[in-house]
Amino acid sequence: EADIYQTPRYLVIGTGKKITLECSQTMGHDKMYWYQQDPGMELHLIHYSYGVNSTEKGDLSSESTVSRIRTEHFPLTLESARPSHTSQYLCASRPDRGKDNEQFFGPGTRLTVL
Amino acid sequence: DAKTTQPNSMESNEEEPVHLPCNHSTISGTDYIHWYRQLPSQGPEYVIHGLTSNVNNRMASLAIAEDRKSSTLILHRATLRDAAVYYCILRSEYGNKLVFGAGTILRVKS
Question: How far apart (Å, rounded) are the C-alpha atoms in residues A107 and A29?
C-alpha cells in the first residue's frame, strides 16, 4: 500500500486564481515527481526532485512551479490558472536507494479551470 | 531513454490468460524493463520489472526475449479488475525518470 497523498482530489476554479496542489508521502523517499495527464492521453513528466532543495524541469514544459522544503512534501503551484491548465496532475515518489526500485503514485488531482 | 512499442489495445475474456507484448529494439545493456498499469480514474501502479531473466510475482509474469529486444507481460487469469492501460517502460540502471508512452488498453469481457 503506497503512502502517498494528494489534495484536493478535485478542484474547479476560475481563471486567474492562484492554486497549490499538495503532495505528501510518508515513506521517506528522496525522489518525487509530478506528471500531467489529459483524459485518455499519456502521462508527461513536468517536474521532479532528487531531495530537499532540489527541483528540476521535466520533459513537458509547464507554467507551474514546485518546491521541496521538506522530504515528505512536494507542492505544485500555478500562479494564475488558465483553462489550458485543465488536466489531471499525478504525484509520485520512489526511494533513492537501489537501482531498480518501483515508483509509487498518488491518486491524482483533477483540475478544471473555467 | 530507449523507446518501447506496444499495441494500442487488446481484448481478453475473463478467466483466460493475457499476453501483452512490448518491443524495445533499441534497449541498452543496463536498461531495466518495467511494467505499470493504470486503472480507470487512478494513478499508475507498479506491476513487475526485470533485466534479463523471466520474473514472476503475485500480479503477473514477465517473459523477456533472449536478445532483450522484446518482452511479454503475462496475466495468468484475467479478471474484470485487470481492465486498465498497461505501460511498458525502459529505465536505465540508475535512471531517475520513468517516461510513459501510450500503453496498451486492455479490455476484459465477462
Answer: 17
